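step: validate -> pass
step: tokenize input -> pass
step: predict -> running
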Amino acid sequence: MATESKTNVPVHVSLIMDGNGRWAMERGKERVYGHFEGVESVRACVETAVEAGVKYLSIYAFSEENWNRPQDEVTALMGLMVKAMAAEMESLDRNGVRFMVLGNRARLDKELNDTIDRCMEMTAHNSTLTLIVLLSYSGKWDILQAAKKMAAEMLEHPERREEMENMGVDGFDRYLVTAGIPDPDLIVRTSGESRLSNYLLWQGAYSELLFTDILWPDFRKDEFRAALESYAKRDRRYGKVK
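step: predict -> pass
step: emit ->
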């Protein structure tokens, strides 16, 4: 496959990793087997993002709604995340990748939160690529917690009421968990589903969307490059006429 042009590489690519369970079931395996195989796809996409010059790569690892899944699957997923993070950090650090986890971390157990803190601290100095894991996250939750932060700030600083009432879209961004991170240029969802599923609802307002039938464990380097090539051909107008 031809290498994508670096003249129109997205700054931020976001991935909705869907289809792990179906991939496993098609092979007569337990659903969790698909999640283990999906880790390999994450590794492949990180490597390709670095090669292509993408600066931010975010992945939707676990939604607020996913807490409603069977408890044994949730437990297995959390254990997998702890092991995967611990196993990958030296490689990510060596390749200049900064690691971040964003979401409702209050719902995560101590072992996972401690692992996240160690990994984030280890890689905080890196700048080649920022890998963002959206964990225990939903778009509606993010907007709600941002509104609560803003309301609390207004109560604490009533003298700033007029400033906040006149706040524009950019001002509100700083209350979101993604504050300081550019909005995704491209959001890719695997497995044939054509919806955002409560993901980055504010941040994805003008993102280019790409839906593919490929199940996440089969989404590797060639598939990521093809997504970048599709993006490079698009004309982003942001509501304007060109």
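step: describe -> Helices lie at 20-26, 31-52, 71-94, 110-123, 139-156, 161-165, 169-173, 221-232.
step: cleanup -> pass
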